[in-house]
Amino acid sequence: MSSFSPGTFGVIGLGRMAQALLFPLMASGLLPRERVQAVVASDASAQRLAAANPGLAVGTDAAAAWRADALLLAVKPQQLAALAATAPATEAGTEAAAEGSIQPPLLISVLAGVTLGRLQALFPGRRIVRAVPNTPCLVGAGLCGLAWGEGVSEAQRRWVQQLFAQVAEVVELPEPQLDAFLALTSSGPAFVALVAGTAALLHEQDLHPGQLKDMVSSPGGTTIAGLRRLEAGGVRSALLEAVLAAAERSRELG
Fold this sequence. Notes:
This protein is of the alpha/beta class. Helix content is 46%, strand content 15%. The protein has helices at residues 16-28, 43-52, 63-66, 80-84, 94-98, 116-122, 154-165, 178-195, 199-204, 209-216, 222-232, 235-253; strands at 9-12, 36-39, 57-59, 70-73, 106-109, 127-133, 142-148, 168-172. α2 (43-52) links the parallel β2 and β3 (57-59). α8 (178-195) crosses α12. It is globular.
């Protein structure tokens, strides 16, 4: 079975999530930094990132990134249409061609809510992967859902899985399930933070949430009264509705 190893790797939008994915790959040697061409919006950002990462090519011109064998697209969804207008006609990456293993270039999108169908329409001729990594990927402990576009080879799938496995537990999902996955894994931490700031305590003390509830409440006390009010107010239902609303908004962004 053939393997896939991009000779060049482009990154358009080197924000926190893209850095969380890219830097472990470079540190592990899986993706040598001399093969990477990163693109950011401003000269100031390019200079700062280049100074902090010697040997990494960072600029504001996307042309070199577009020519790469594989490309990570990590801009804001609202920037997608304008960016797509600058994309050149698709050609197989020059490094792959030189090695005699020409494959259509791979585009990996981490744009929330942007569907495979829309990406394929904007970037015809590329093999498209839609990835949904959540915030804990920033500390190497995340979850990432992956959905495959048409024509993505088994070798390309294995390589993409290996990429995200550096920072997350990887789950392959049918694309219709990605919006719910996004709402639960990406928006979920914000919902939990809104109603409970005790995650660190639970972790550090190795407590079950029920144990913590018992520790801070007593029969007839103030905390149990508050918990009863939360139950009466339908907090569990409200959290469920929040997840559903986030999933719906994800679909609207696409």
